[in-house]
Specification:
Layout (H helix, E strand, L loop, with lengths): L2 H21 L11 E5 L5 E5 L5 E2 L1
Antiparallel strand pairs: 1-2, 2-3
Amino acid sequence: MPASILGEVGHLSETALARDTITRLSCPSCGSAHVAQLLGDNGGISYVCTACGHSWS
């Protein structure tokens, strides 16, 4: 592959990794990444940790 294409692929990989790190949630109680998003009755969003059961909004 030409060097310019390899540079673009490397840049895309770094961007995807940064985006994945930013969007991942972790439980503030135990630090687990096993977090589910819940929609409330009034349209609010809450989260619950499926590892320890801690919930927050």
